Amino acid sequence: MPSMVSLKTPDNQSFQAYFAPAQSADAPGIVLIQEIFGINDSMRTLASEWSTKGFNVVVPDLFWRQEPGVVLEPRKEAEFAHGVELMQAVDQDVAAQDLEVTRAWLAEKIGHDRVGAMGYCFGGRMVVKMAADNRIRCAVSFYGVGLEQFVPDLGADTAPTQLHIAELDDYVPADVRKTLLDQAEQRQHWEAYVYPGCDHAFARPNGEHWDKAAAQKANARAQEYLSRFLTK
Q: How many domains does the chain contain in total?
C-alpha cells in the first residue's frame, strides 16, 4: 500500500515522500518529480498508476524547505499563483541534492540501482538535471520548463532522456521546441515527441488540459523507454 516515508538529508534534516511500491519488492524504481503543486492527488494518482505497471515509485516533497507538505489545486487561481511563488523560491541546486537523497533511498530500498526518474512541468526540468548528474539510468520529462537554458550545455555523459512536448505549450514556444528536438536528435539514446493540439499538462490526470489519447500514447512511450533502461 502507498504510504508517506521520511528521508534524511546529509545534514540530518528530514523531509517527506510518497512511496507507492510495486508488487515485486525488487522491481525497477522511479523517482517521480512533482509539478509546482506539491504531492497532490494528481501526483499520487500517477505514482499508483506507475506502481501497477511494475515500478517502485517515490515522490519527494521538493517544497519542504519552504512549506512542508503543501498541497495545491492548480484550478484555483490563488493556489496556482502560490505554486509559482514556491517554484521561484526553490534553490534548484539544493533541490537536486534532495532528489539524489531520494534516488539513493529508493536504490537501497529495492536493493539495486535500476532507478530512473520522471518529472512533470517543474519536475520535467528537475528530472533533466538529475540526468546531468548521471546517477539515474534514464529520465523522462513531461513538458519540462526552461530546458533550453541548460540542455545545449549538457555533457556527453548525461543519462538517456526522453522529452514529451505539447505543441500548444506557451512555456515551450516554437524556437524552444526546435532547440530541444535538435538536441534530442544529436544525443545518443535521447528521444523527443511533440503532441499536436495539446497544451501544457496534457498528461495530468483529469486536469484542465488533460488529453486522454495523447496521455496514453506518451505513457506507453515512457513505459517502453523506462523498461529498456531499467530492466537490464
A: 1
